[in-house]
């Protein structure tokens, strides 16, 4: 019996842009970059300067390199955790909407300060909007399992501007003293509320189903399938039903409030989610040979 | 094209022929388009000059060329299409922003707010636009015909240094002059209460448009300066080889 051969690697790490040699490691077992400013989350190490980043789990021995390897380092810029970004971008709309709902001073003419709307649909809308964002915050804390730890810092400014800006724009009109309730009155509001609640439960069911696909701490990817929960049966027709239900919720909210800014927000969100859904669908198709052919990215049979 | 002969399969030959016809068609269309646009803006330049020489004043000049201006400036929208289908190698967004800002000035400012049509600032930007467009479209035309006179290239990459800021001044002064008329008439605006639960104030929208020149203009200007340096840098290398 001979002892297993130990393989030593010589590795040099070059800057992806300037090709300067950053370090040369001989007989190494793992990579490091010495300056603490370049914390691991912002390092991108890759085999080709223009290629994809290597993952944390990649093992040197299993990479397509010989006994000398050249890696390229790219600085991803300051990073921030996904959890922090989600918590910030969702707390904003929750608080901002309430400021408008309670008619805090300096928004509407002073005689309306701290008054309440005489339309009951306005109270209902506030409850729905707040419920939606509380649900998102709780899901971020307890349900979601993120495959990436961090994203670039500038994203938090971009995302918060989007969420907070739209929340303020919508809330201003819904809670305005001159708000006009929906044309078809109670009927319209009732249908809208049913759609909204149905899609909120659906969206939550999908998040739970996706969480259960992935055991804690793992980053494995599997095809999601319908479970015993009827709200997940939509997986038969759609790759990203969480986006489908999200669209449904906002369509419900638009119908409930009959407010053009809400419709606009729904449209912009739909466009963004379609882009994400198509990307996710494409990567499912690439990764899994036996991916169900009946599924569409976001809208059954259509998109 | 010898390699495509060697490739052999009928399908490949057909595809290559399709590509060739498409690019010949594209070149033919683009050449026609750029000649037509050069001609159009030349007509505008001559009409403006003739009016001023005959009448001695700029009052009423805009009205006399308004239809021609609207036609040729609006037709420039097809340039966005050119970028989108790829026959012109420019970003759709950059072209889109440039054409939209022109359309905005023509249709939503000078066309709809008659009282400012006799402002001097209007003549200022019209002159700038005319010179710029004649230079630009003739540059593209000659480039497509593979016979680019040096002075056209020089004009394209140097005149903008003065014309661009002057044009911006003309546009901003015109929008500023339009503000009181917009406020008084309440045009393009929507007040509460209404069944869509939205409001829009064109007056404040115009103020935001004016403010947006502050971040946008330097970016476009420095982009043009960088392009210019690249073209001049290229020239230097050729001379050395000679």
UniProtKB/TrEMBL annotation, chain A:
GO terms for cellular component: endoplasmic reticulum; membrane. GO terms for molecular function: oxidoreductase activity, acting on the CH-CH group of donors. It is found in: Endoplasmic reticulum; Membrane. Keywords: Endoplasmic reticulum, Membrane, Oxidoreductase, Transmembrane, Transmembrane helix. Gene3D superfamilies: Phosphatidylinositol 3-kinase Catalytic Subunit, Chain A, domain 1. PROSITE patterns: S5A_REDUCTASE. Residues 9-75 form the TECR-like N-terminal domain. Residues 150-303 form the 3-oxo-5-alpha-steroid 4-dehydrogenase C-terminal domain. It is a multi-pass membrane protein. GO terms for biological process: very long-chain fatty acid biosynthetic process. The chain crosses the membrane at residues 80-102, 161-179, 191-210, 231-253, 259-277. The keyword Transmembrane helix applies. InterPro entries: 3-oxo-5_a-steroid_4-DH_C, SRD5A/TECR, TECR-like_N. Coiled coil: none annotated. Belongs to the steroid 5-alpha reductase family. This is Trans-2,3-enoyl-CoA reductase b.
TrEMBL record, chain B:
It holds the Pfam family PTPLA. Its main location: endoplasmic reticulum. Its EC number is 4.2.1.134. One of its GO terms (molecular function) is very-long-chain (3R)-3-hydroxyacyl-CoA dehydratase activity. Keywords: Endoplasmic reticulum, Fatty acid biosynthesis, Fatty acid metabolism, Lipid biosynthesis, Lipid metabolism, Lyase, Membrane, Transmembrane, Transmembrane helix. Pathway: Lipid metabolism; fatty acid biosynthesis. The keyword Magnesium does not apply. It is found in: Endoplasmic reticulum membrane; Membrane. It catalyses: a very-long-chain (3R)-3-hydroxyacyl-CoA = a very-long-chain (2E)-enoyl-CoA + H2O; (3R)-hydroxyhexadecanoyl-CoA = (2E)-hexadecenoyl-CoA + H2O. The chain crosses the membrane at residues 26-48, 93-110, 122-139, 159-182, 202-222. GO terms for biological process: fatty acid elongation; sphingolipid biosynthetic process; very long-chain fatty acid biosynthetic process. It comes from the Eukaryota. Catalyzes the third of the four reactions of the long-chain fatty acids elongation cycle. This endoplasmic reticulum-bound enzymatic process, allows the addition of two carbons to the chain of long- and very long-chain fatty acids/VLCFAs per cycle. This enzyme catalyzes the dehydration of the 3-hydroxyacyl-CoA intermediate into trans-2,3-enoyl-CoA, within each cycle of fatty acid elongation. Thereby, it participates to the production of VLCFAs of different chain lengths that are involved in multiple biological processes as precursors of membrane lipids and lipid mediators. Belongs to the very long-chain fatty acids dehydratase HACD family. This is Very-long-chain (3R)-3-hydroxyacyl-CoA dehydratase.
């Amino acid at each position: 019996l001979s002892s297993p051969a130990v393989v030593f690697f010589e590795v040099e790490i070059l800057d992806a842009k300037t090709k300067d040699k950053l370090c040369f490691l001989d007989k190494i077992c793992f990579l490091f970059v010495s300056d603490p400013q370049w914390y691991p989350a912002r390092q991108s190490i890759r085999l080709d300067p223009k290629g994809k980043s290597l993952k944390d789990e990649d093992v040197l021995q299993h990479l397509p390199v010989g006994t000398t390897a050249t890696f390229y380092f790219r600085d991803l810029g300051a990073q921030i955790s996904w959890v922090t970004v989600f918590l910030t971008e969702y707390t904003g709309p929750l608080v901002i909407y309430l400021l408008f709902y309670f008619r805090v001073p300096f928004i509407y003419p002073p005689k309306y300060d701290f008054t309440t709307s005489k339309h009951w649909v306005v109270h209902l809308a506030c409850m729905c909007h707040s419920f939606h964002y509380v649900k998102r915050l709780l899901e971020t804390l307890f349900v979601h399992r993120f495959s990436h730890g961090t994203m670039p810092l500038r994203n938090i400014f971009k995302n918060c501007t989007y969420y907070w800006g739209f929340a303020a724009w919508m809330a201003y009109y819904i809670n305005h003293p001159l708000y006009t309730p929906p044309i078809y009155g109670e009927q319209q509001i009732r249908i809208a509320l049913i759609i909204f609640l149905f899609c909120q439960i659906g969206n939550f069911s999908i998040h739970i189903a996706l969480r259960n696909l992935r055991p804690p701490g793992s980053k494995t990817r599997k095809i999601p399938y319908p479970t015993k929960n009827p709200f997940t049966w939509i997986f038969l027709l759609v790759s990203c039903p969480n986006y489908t239900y999200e669209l449904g919720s906002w369509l419900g909210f638009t119908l409930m409030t009959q407010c053009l800014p809400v419709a606009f927000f729904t449209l912009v969100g739909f466009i963004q989610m379609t882009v994400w859904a198509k990307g996710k669908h494409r990567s499912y198709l690439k990764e899994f040979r036996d991916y169900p052919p009946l599924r569409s990215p976001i809208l059954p049979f259509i998109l | 094209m010898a390699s495509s002969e060697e490739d052999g399969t009928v399908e490949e030959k057909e595809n290559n022929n399709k590509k060739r016809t498409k690019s010949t068609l594209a070149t033919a269309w683009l050449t026609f388009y750029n000649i037509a646009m050069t001609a159009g803006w030349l007509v505008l330049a001559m009409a403006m000059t003739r009016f001023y020489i005959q009448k001695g004043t700029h009052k009423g000049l805009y009205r006399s060329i308004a239809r021609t201006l609207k036609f040729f400036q609006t037709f420039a929208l097809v340039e966005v299409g050119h970028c989108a289908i790829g026959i012109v190698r420019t970003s759709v967004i950059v072209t889109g922003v440039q054409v939209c800002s022109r359309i905005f000035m023509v249709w939503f400012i000078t066309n709809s707010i008659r009282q400012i049509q006799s402002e001097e600032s209007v003549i200022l930007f019209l002159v700038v636009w005319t010179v710029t467009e004649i230079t630009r479209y003739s540059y593209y035309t000659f480039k497509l015909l593979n016979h680019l006179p040096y002075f056209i290239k020089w004009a394209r990459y140097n005149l903008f240094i003065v014309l661009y800021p002057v044009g911006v001044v003309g546009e901003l002064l015109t929008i500023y002059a339009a503000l009181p008329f917009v406020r008084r008439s309440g045009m393009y605006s929507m007040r509460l209460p209404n069944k869509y639960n939205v409001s829009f104030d064109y007056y404040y929208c115009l103020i935001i448009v004016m403010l947006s020149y502050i971040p946008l203009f330097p970016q476009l200007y420095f982009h043009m300066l960088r392009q210019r340096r690249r073209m001049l840098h290229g020239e230097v290398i050729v001379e050395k080889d000679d």
